[in-house]
Amino acid sequence: MRKLILQMQMSVDGYVSPANGNLDWQLWGWGERWAWDDRLKQDFNAVFEGIDTILLSRLIAEEGYLDHWGRAAKNFPANPHYAFAQKIVDARKVVLTDKLSASRWERTVIARGGMAEEVNALKRQPGKDIITIGGVGFASALVAAGLVDEFQFFVNPTAVGAGRSVFHDQRKGHKLRLLRSTGYECGMVVNCYTPG
């Protein structure tokens, strides 16, 4: 059975979305300024070697995630640091929503069923793993439903003071088991966990 991998950037103090929405807290906010070191860029690309499906929320798809990386794949075809962009273009994309009747993106389908039903159906299909990159609301819903098999947190060397987390169970908490932790010269630490 395939794994669902949740990949998110996070602050040192555990927030994936800071309360101050104008705060420049990420070493790479998906723009032109990319302060990751070469080893981190290489390792990030390696993640996409084991992926053939990307699960997205409607919001992140409509905000331009697929268009952005499609442009990057065209603009940097020979740059090995952007190899993941072509992997995003080539991968099957699934947008989980009941608010769209059809997809306007290439290699992208709309899944209109319940979250657990749709994600578990994807996991049962043959192929490589599934990655989800989304906003805090979508990620939190996946976590609350117990659908995430691996967490990949890209911890930026910034504390933001307050914000939103993907974890909300205040009674039991969320026990996680560390798979690996890797620090990089740029200050980023990538922590990978499975549910405990």
Could you describe the 3D structure shown?
Helix content is 27%, strand content 27%. Helix 3 packs across helix 4 (83-90). It is α/β, with parallel strands linked by helices. The protein has helices at 38-47, 58-62, 65-75, 83-90, 115-124, 136-144; strands at 4-10, 17-18, 51-57, 92-96, 108-111, 129-132, 150-155, 163-164, 176-183, 189-195. An eight-stranded mixed sheet has the order 5-4-3-6-1-7-10-9, with helices on both faces. Strands 2-8 form a two-stranded antiparallel sheet. A hairpin with a 5-residue loop joins strand 9 (176-183) and strand 10. The model has no long low-confidence stretch (mean pLDDT 92). The protein is globular, with a radius of gyration of 16 Å.
List the helices and strands and how they pair.
Layout: E1 4-10, E2 17-18, H1 38-47, E3 51-57, H2 58-62, H3 65-75, H4 83-90, E4 92-96, E5 108-111, H5 115-124, E6 129-132, H6 136-144, E7 150-155, E8 163-164, E9 176-183, E10 189-195
Parallel strand pairs: 1-6, 1-7, 3-4, 3-6, 4-5
Antiparallel strand pairs: 2-8, 7-10, 9-10
Short synopsis of the structure:
The chain is α/β, with parallel strands linked by helices. The chain contains six helices and ten strands.
Distinctive features:
196 residues; eight-stranded mixed β-sheet; two-stranded antiparallel ribbon; 27% helix
Annotated CATH architecture: 3-Layer(aba) Sandwich
Number of contiguous helices: 6
Shape verdict: globular
Mean pLDDT rating: 92
Element-level helix/strand string: EEHEHHHEEHEHEEEE
Task: Estimate percent helicity.
Answer: 25-40%
Uncertain spans: none
Tell me the total number of β-strands: 10
β-sheet strand percentage = 25-35%
> How would you classify the helix and strand content by structural class?
alpha/beta
Total tally of structural domains? 1
Query: CA-to-CA gap between the ends?
Result: 19 Å
> What is the radius of gyration?
16 Å
- Give me the CATH superfamily: Dihydrofolate Reductase, subunit A
CATH-derived topology: Dihydrofolate Reductase, subunit A
Q: How is the main sheet built?
A: 8 strands, mixed
Strand order of the largest sheet: 5-4-3-6-1-7-10-9
CATH class: Alpha Beta
